[in-house]
Amino acid sequence: MSALVHNYEPLHVVLSRGEGAWVHDTSGRRYLDLLAGYSALNFGHRHPALVAAVHTQLDRLTLTSRAFEHPLLEPFADALTRLTGTERFLPMNTGAEAVETAIKAARRWGYLVRGVPDGEATIVVAAGNFHGRTTTITSFSTDPDAHDHFGPYTPGFRVVPYDDIEAVRAAIDATTVAVLVEPVQGEAGVVVPTPGYLPALRALCDVTGTMLVLDEVQSGLGRTGTTLAAQLSDVRADLTCLGKALGGGILPVSGVVGRADVLDLLTPGTHGSTFGGNPLACAVGLAVVGLLEPGDLQERARTLGARLHDGLDELRRAGLLDAVRGVGLWAGVDVPDAWGVTGRAVCEAMAGRGVLAKETHGRTLRLAPPLTIRSEDLDHGIAILGESLESLRP
Ligand code: PMP
Fold first, then answer.
1. With CB atoms counted within 10 Å of each terminal CB, which end of the chain scores lower, N or C?
2. CATH 3.90.1150.10: does it fit domain 15-33+295-392?
């Protein structure tokens, strides 16, 4: 027993080193990482360009707080907005903070521009959402564990079924300032909506004068085969939350990109963070943008993603999986219900064979390998998943 609070249930591997798609435990054993920090490690462990950028900055300056300026913050904002085709960037640290920032921006815009009385703004969100762990975000979670006696909750959210445009239409009224959804629901098990959903949301938001806020903390920055998942549907959000991979798996870096007329309403004193946009964060964030700008990694996510989904479909056809969902280099798979085998048991069987994945919701596994993974390593990972499932088939 240590002093650590037991608010997670990790697999019992103790990792001490990582490189690319591979990690080592403290005994020197090697594992292939198919989880990649839930998409925080899109570029693999310790990508040389990212490590070099952080090293260089570490020798210069690490923190100013936002009380003073430093030379990397504006270039980072300019580079990230160029990459994402947006106008403004407001830097934060964690994904949850980015979502909180978007909620505050939408409510402030609702009051100042739309004339929704202060305290009456509503935001439409989707069942099965995951946007973080703060009190306000927890208020509209539909996960019973996340919502287990943490009240009183923050009012102002209307939960409708995911991928149901009519439910959103029915939930929007004169108080509604935003619709906030994940373009692909990550924690829910990599749930991809029907192709027309996001365009229909965009059109509905346009007609009703409501902001479309997309949480791309997990889906963004290459994972789906495009820089943003919304680009798969040719949709442009008003505000987009980014996090995870923005820090290259090295540092917590997040923020909101989007419309200038909305984000510029967050004037001095109204919002901020001591660490948001710090020099180290900007150094790694700029290097992350540099990795994504050429588009090769997005292309890799498409081609390796097709390989991943082909491999998983084969396992499904062999009766080893109930369902395979996902897009790009990202998949959620369900262990057959009839087996009575947990996702955890599959992950343990995989770890025993040197491949790491992690279960969610009982019998679901999420796979999000680094976009830099070698194709032969990906094939190896899929083969080990198949072998592990086979070993547990009743
Ligand atoms: N939004 C989404 C879509 C996420 O997947 C997550 C993390 N899983 C978050 C927000 C929260 O990010 P963080 O844990 O950095 O607060």
1. N
2. yes
